[in-house]
Specification:
The complex is a heterodimer of chains A (about 700) and B (about 240). Chain A has 29 helices and seven strands. Chain A is an all-alpha fold and about 700 residues long. Chain A is globular, with a radius of gyration of 27 Å. Chain B has about 240 residues and is an alpha/beta fold. The longest helix of chain B is centred in the last third of the chain and has 16 residues. The chains are: A mainly alpha (about 700), B alpha/beta (about 240). Chains A and B meet through helix 20, helix 21 and helix 28 of A and helix 2, strand 6, helix 3 and helix 5 of B.
Chain lengths: ~700, ~240
């Protein structure tokens, strides 16, 4: 379709959508001066908060290339720190005017600089999924840490600034807190403008955006700039969090952390570059939300449309983005490539897994049998991402959304005696849904595609399950699987069933990797441009792998539904967006391109649950968040995944694996080459480099040379 | 007869005119050279021919058929193959698998059926890298990886092959072998467009040479004519006068 027409289509669709929704959900409030003023008084401060958070995101992304999923969680964490200072009863009762600058201008920037030094700097040149998952890990770690320090069983609340007092504009009250929020956002906009266009530092930051290597050559200290950007990003994140906290629920994994979706939507309006457009995006979003809060009344199946507005808008904005160019191969940090296991090895491994599970299951209690089954089901969901993320390099953050759709399909189609056909149908139904999501998203590359899937996951969580055709207001009972008169109701037989299913699916996935299609996906990941020039239809291939992955997720979802036995419609039904993110994260920690990585994801989730449930220590109460968060830091060292790393490390010790030793040596030699672009600029030219250059030039070691450096 | 006809192609990047009305033809059965200083627009022109870059103006014809608006994979199926100046091999696959990917795609549009594995071995043998067939391309030296790209391009059974500096990273013996290979390929009726900085290789293999400077074709002719052309010397050395 012609690009102009497709844009027109999206615009017309959006307007029709807004009009239709407004018509349907009109609450009947009069539209007059007062109500419109009310809308403004509600929306402008909100816009300010979104804009601040999104600006932080944009500044960090443009200077360092890292898209920060932890932006909201950082704000949440510092809102708690601030709470600790100012709370009168359990906190230290400081004055807000002392605590606010201390947190926003000292603690947050220091944390940002530390984050940059310790973690973010090592993300340069890593693949997108690694970059994203490390920040997702930080998000989870912060949720876990906040929960550990500030007991989530108790309610925490922050009073607004100025004791909640305000002033009247006509009949409408504008609190000083909200007024100050608006002013702060405006001040930040002016400040950033001056910083980026009038100061040396800012100009250097913009230069780094354009070309990091060139900027480094002309003397910009990229490392200094990235530290500054992270400090600034954290500072505005903290500010946004603290200003928003009085208006929302402060729960660690709640509204403050999920502010990211809203900030993403605003930032994408500015194409992750333009700050003025980001402000415009924030304003549009805030007014849409204000409009729905003030004039619309969503009830029943549509109750959650209002909180889904950011996700919907993020998706619409992504549709309007221009088509991305075909991607050439980028120089990555040398990867440790997954060893492609043979089908025979996988069959043996999976048979061993089944036998082990069979023996183990005899000793497990009912509760533990259930947890193990959940672990294997999770592994099955993670497995659906291996071809998509691991091989094709397309990042999807919506595995549980498709699993949820599959679960719903199975719950509806399974009948009283769940049939295997319902499971297969659940998978089949998800495939076109996946292709449908992928089709517009295919125009987008990497990060934008990931964001689109995230918006989709959020939409499914909030709106899909509440539909009467899906789950509706109550919940749906899910029947157990019956195959040829055999019933898998018993916890133990169910565990063995899902283990067997995982085994068979794994063998299938390995066989797929070794097929022509598998090779084509790897080729696509390594170089889209080269794939196209040997005749690969990129669109078709991407659609196929997306549909395949969605189908596999739906298949896994059917088993998840059997495991839960009832399917709810709330965000706690086991198919929430954040849980999906956790699965992606666990898969990447384990190894995104291999079957054992998926198994690791399941076992990892299981292990954290087992620890939390069995060891009633305060230290373990948030381990479900803390463990993946901290383990995510390991991805930086082992982008191929922990399982691969352990496997290779083990293989070189085996006497008959001479090939593994040779490969390890080759890899070590290849990785030893210095980054030439940075040599002498950000890294000193050392003795070892001299030797390397000599070797390159063919100068022998016995040539006499000056031993001391001059100058 | 003309196999590939590049007609009045212009490419504009913002204010920069990277290719400015370039016209050249590639004929079957011979090597056509495309030389010019760095930044002259050679690689951009390659991207236009293979469909990775849409031209601002102009047309690309293959066998008299206008393919200017065809998508890259369609052009590959019509018979255009290329290698890349900055390596675009499938790094995490082995050399053999790189060739297999192309062969498996070709199987989908070519009518003939064949044994991909045997053909892949043959192609690697032909470019002289059969010994590294089972090595991951990422671990190969640049020059060898370039030859993988050549084998991969040949696997699509092209009518015209675009080579973007194939000799860089090769030593002298390997470059000679490449020259022999080129002669053999065009002997079989293939048309080759060669971008190359190695002048002996260009002079030895090319039947006709086009010189690109600032996006324009400033000269074309036989190797002999090009060597004598004053405008070419100007483009390369900045002046006709030799430095004193």
């Amino acid at each position: 379709m012609n690009r102009r027409w497709s844009n027109l289509f999206v615009w017309a669709g959006t307007i029709a959508f807004v009009v239709a929704v407004s018509w349907q959900a009109w609450a009947g409030n009069p539209v007059d001066g007062t109500s419109l003023l009310n809308l403004l008084v509600f929306s402008l401060p909100l816009a300010g908060i979104y804009a601040m958070s999104a600006s932080g995101l944009v500044v960090v992304y443009t200077t360092t290339g890292v898209f920060n999923f932890a932006q909201g969680a950082i704000g949440m964490f510092f809102a708690y720190v601030y709470w600790q200072f100012v709370d009168q009863t359990t906190g230290w009762g400081w004055s807000p005017w002392l605590a606010l600058p201390l947190v926003v201008l000292v603690f947050a920037p220091l944390a940002g600089i530390a984050l940059d030094r310790v973690i973010m700097r090592q993300l340069q040149g890593q693949s997108l999924v690694v970059q994203l998952m490390v920040t997702v890990g930080i998000m989870f770690a912060l949720i876990g840490l906040a929960g550990l320090i500030w007991d989530q069983q108790e309610a925490h609340s922050l009073p607004p600034l100025f004791n909640g007092e305000g002033f009247n504009i006509g009949d409408v009250v504008l609190t000083w807190h909200r007024f100050a929020t608006i002013l702060t956002a405006v001040a930040l906009a002016i400040g950033l403008r001056i910083l980026l266009f009038r100061t040396r530092l800012g100009i250097a930051m913009r230069a780094v955006v354009d070309n990091r290597g060139l900027a480094a050559l002309s003397g910009a200290r990229a490392s200094l700039l990235s530290g500054f950007a992270w400090g600034l990003g954290c500072s505005v994140a903290a500010l946004a969090g603290i200003l928003l906290a009085p208006e929302v629920d402060m729960a660690a994994g709640g509204a403050l952390t999920l502010l990211i979706i809203t900030s993403f939507a605003a930032a994408v309006v500015g194409r992750l570059r333009s700050l003025p457009l980001t402000y415009v995006g924030a304003l549009i979003l805030a007014i849409s939300i204000g409009w729905s809060n003030n004039f619309l009344l969503f009830a029943g199946r549509w109750t959650n449309v209002s909180p889904a507005i950011p996700a919907i808008m993020l998706f619409i904005v992504l549709l309007l983005l221009p088509r991305a160019e075909l991607r050439f191969a980028r120089t990555h940090v040398m990867r440790k490539i997954e060893r492609v296991s043979t089908v025979r090895d996988t069959v043996i491994g999976m048979a061993a897994l089944f036998v082990a599970m069979w023996l183990l299951s005899r000793t497990l209690s009912d509760a533990n049998l259930s947890r193990f089954a959940l672990g294997i089901c999770t592994a099955l969901v993670a497995l659906s991402l291996v071809p998509l993320i691991g091989w094709a390099g397309q990042v999807s953050l919506a595995p549980l959304a498709f699993a949820g759709i599959g679960a719903t399909a199975y719950a509806r189609l399974g009948g009283d005696h769940g049939s295997i056909w319902a499971v297969l149908l659940a998978a089949l139904i998800c495939m076109p849904v996946g292709a449908l999501l992928a089709f517009p998203a295919m125009r987008l590359q990497g990060l934008y595609l990931a964001l689109a899937t995230m918006a989709f996951a959020s939409f499914v969580e909030l709106v899909f399950f509440a539909q009467p055709f899906a789950v509706g207001a109550g919940s749906r009972l899910v029947s157990h699987l019956h195959i040829a008169g055999f019933d898998f109701e018993d916890r133990r037989t169910f565990l063995l069933l899902v283990t067997a299913v995982f085994g068979v699916a794994s063998v299938g996935v390995v066989a797929l990797r070794r097929s022509a299609f598998g090779r084509r996906l790897i080729a696509l990941r390594d170089s889209e441009a080269a794939s196209a020039t040997v005749g690969v239809n990129i669109l078709e291939t991407k659609l196929a792998v997306f549909a395949l992955s969605a189908g596999m997720s739906g298949f896994a979802g059917a088993f998840l539904a059997m495991h839960y036995h009832t399917l709810g419609s709330g965000s706690n039904n086991g198919f929430a967006m954040l849980q999906g993110l956790a699965i992606v994260l666990a898969l990447v920690i384990g190894g995104v391109a291999c079957v054992s990585g998926a198994l690791f994801a399941g076992v990892f989730g299981l292990a954290t649950v087992l620890i939390q449930e069995n060891w009633h220590l305060d230290l373990w109460k948030t381990i479900v968040f803390l463990a993946p968060g901290l383990a995510a830091l390991g991805i930086i060292r082992n982008p191929a995944g922990a399982v691969v790393e352990i496997g290779e490390g083990f293989a070189v010790l085996l006497p008959w694996r001479r090939d593994a030793r040779r490969e390890a040596a080759e890899l070590k030699a290849a990785n030893a080459e210095p980054e030439v672009g940075e040599l002498g600029l950000t890294r000193e030219f050392e003795e070892a480099d001299v030797l390397l250059v000599d070797r390159g030039l063919g100068i022998s070691n016995d040539v006499p040379r000056a031993t001391t450096r001059t100058g | 007869m003309e196999l590939l006809d590049i007609h009045e192609i212009s490419v504009q990047f913002g204010g920069l005119l990277a290719v400015d009305g370039a016209t050249l033809t590639v004929e079957a059965g011979c090597v056509t050279g495309l030389i010019g200083p760095n930044g002259a627009g050679k690689t951009t022109l390659f991207n236009v021919i293979t469909g990775l870059q849409a031209p601002t103006r102009g047309r690309v014809l293959l066998d008299g058929r206008d393919i200017t608006r065809r998508r890259p994979y369609r052009r590959a199926r019509l018979g255009i193959a290329r290698t890349f100046q900055r390596l675009e091999a499938f790094g995490s696959l082995t050399a053999r698998e790189n060739v297999l990917v192309a062969l498996e795609m070709r199987r989908r549009w070519a009518k003939s059926s064949y044994d991909s594995n045997a053909l892949a071995e043959g192609l690697l043998e032909q470019v002289g890298i059969a010994s590294v067939a089972h090595k991951r391309v990422e671990s190969l030296p640049t020059g060898t990886a370039r030859l993988v790209e050549v084998a991969r391009a040949l696997a699509t059974d092209p009518k015209v092959l675009l080579l973007d500096e194939p000799s860089s990273g090769l030593d002298e013996a390997e470059t000679d072998a490449l020259g022999v290979l080129l002669h053999k390929l065009v002997g079989g009726g293939l048309g080759v467009l060669l971008v190359e900085h190695d002048m002996p290789l260009v002079m030895d293999t090319c039947a006709i040479i086009h010189v690109l400077d600032f996006g324009r074709v400033i000269a074309h002719g036989t190797p002999h004519e090009i060597q004598a052309d004053p405008s070419v010397q100007r483009a390369y050395l900045g002046t006709t006068k030799t430095a004193s």
